[in-house]
Amino acid sequence: MKTLLLGADIPGIMEAAKTIRNGGLVAFPTETVYGLGADAKNETAVNRIYAVKGRPADNPLILHIHDLAQFHAYADAPEYFELLAEAFWPGPLTVVVPKKSTTPGWGTAGLPTIAIRMPSNDASRLLAKHAQTAIYAPSANLSGKPSPTSARHVLQDLDGKIEIVLDGGHCIYGLESTVLDISENTPRILRPGFITAEMIYERIGILPESGHQQSKQPKSPGVKYKHYAPNAELTVVNGSPASAAAFINEHASKTEKRIGVLATDQTVEKYDLNKYSVLNIGDRLKPELIGAGLYAALRKFDELGVEIIYAEGIIGTGIGAAVMNRMAKAAGGRVVNL
Fold it and tell me: How do beta strands 135-136 and 277-280 pair?
């Protein structure tokens, strides 16, 4: 199969919409990461997403919509959902809600709930509008690898496996959406993102709990499995800038393997560029900038062929919680707290 790379303009979107209607797969930009989309009404196409990505069958997908009419066609929601939609849609918030009895089971991993979001990226909403369907779309990468934040990243994983990639440039947020479960009495953040618990509290007057419930099948992607991982073994080091850099330098010097270091503005000069592949992820006091560049940096380490990566952690509050969630997932839990 030849994968077409098209611009995320009207001609490209119209061609992609036709491909979606015909049962094909299209990678498209959103404000968070690139998604791999299929017609939500087409079971064969949705199942093909799982096959192309190598995605476990019990990992639900997120339904992307372009208006609230599509939401209400698939799901029910508590009254305060309207406050959330008014505040955060279009935008990087996914809600998990009870699905209607008429909503098919494919894409939801057989759960009684469905995850839905309305992206703010114009191309993604126009794609759903012109395809005349809601679109199931996980991130457009091989399962477990760093999510793609550019069309080039998508092609690294899926070239020759899907019909079209719409090139909309770099994603502005670079981390997946916040996932908020509002299907039960107490709202719960299943996956942190740029919409924080404090922002949600300000809108609905309820502070959501955090974390999924281990005893249940996950209602959201990004919860159960190792995600976002580069080829190299990654270790996250939490501590002050000076202590983190000292720890990394000490341990990196003990191996002959190729080392990559994910540094920050505050520490980049503490590493020997002749010994290590050092990437500066930005100012540790600006987690939104670090989040925007995290996956691109992890993919760059893959291109450089490093074997071990050390990443400096940042303060895990607010947007920093989303960054640290992704780092810990990418590291498979290898986190050092100094």
Answer: unpaired
